[in-house]
User: What shape does this take?
Amino acid sequence: MTSLPPLHILAVSDRNGLDDFIAVPFAIYRSDPNWVPPLRFERRQALAPAQPLSEHAQWQLWVAYRDGKPIGRISAQIDQLHLDRYHDQTGFFGFLEAPDDPAVFNALFATAEAWLREHGMARVRGPFSLSVNQESGLLVEGFDTPPYLMMGHATRYYERRLLDLGYAGVKDLLAYEMGLPFSRPSNLENLLVRFAKDIHVRPFNRARKAADLEVLRDLFNDAWSENWSFVPFTEAEFAAIGTELLPLIPADFIQIAEIDGEPVAFMAFMPNINEAIADLGGKLLPFAWAKLLWRLKVRFPKSVRVSLMGVRKRFHHTRLGPTLAYAVIKAGLPAALRMGVERAEMSWILEDNQGMRNIIESLGGEISKRYRMFDKALG
Assistant: This one.
């Protein structure tokens, strides 16, 4: 019996190592028609050491090599904002990709877990890439369709390998998909009529971009503050999101609801850029963003993702809560239809967030994908 070449796990420390880290999924999914190759230049930016996340988090990336070829990868990260909020000595893993080989999984996780222990962590949770406010969860249902923008993909054996390593599922995150225009439930329509005099909905104002970005950040951080594993966006993080994504989004894809002049809810339709990049093989050079903007202008995606949305916490568990959520979604619908959008994904939604699930299901949304978070005690 021929033995395999030895396995080496190397920390990423330079541009070549980062390129190998980025290249791993291209081999894992080369025969998977539902995988969307990420843009390599965008991945380099997302993993750059100098970024807003580094102000409160640290991380390390590793690549598994066999016979000199990169075949697997993983990250480990520690977020000081999480530790300050929860005091639970929990670190995280992410960017997991590996062939169906227990030796590769064992070596990658042993390395990441050792790093977390060395930095004082008692538990590990994931996958997060690199933060809970980025891609979260391992796909465990819904492998037969491509992921939407900033949502993950995986192969079926990943969950089994995690369970074999002693990880347990701790929380499920759901993706709902619906056709546009969506259903207009009578109960929400009646509530909207009832509160019409109180609620004013307006689009994002590009003329005061910085101020409106801060409005969105404040709303998100308040609305999500009691959600599982929540960590607030910093001003720098949200400003970076605005710089990266606002050029791709029509202003009226973002709707803000106000009561007596106070912002109380918002919703953002994000064009599903995965439609525009699926055939590029990860390459979009030269003039990367300009070329992508041209593609979106010529052939706008037929789908959008509602990735950012929130209602102020004090309206949760009141009749105004679902009314505000419905108001901002409904206000964005004409803009989406104007651009030819036919489908929307709302993700991710915590499985136990029954209030939001009820609203989405009343609009005609159906669960299309399920992502799972795992954790484990570090002995």
In short: Residues 255 and 331 are 7 Å apart (CA to CA). Residues 320-338 form the longest helix (19 residues). The mean pLDDT is 95. The longest strand covers residues 168-179.
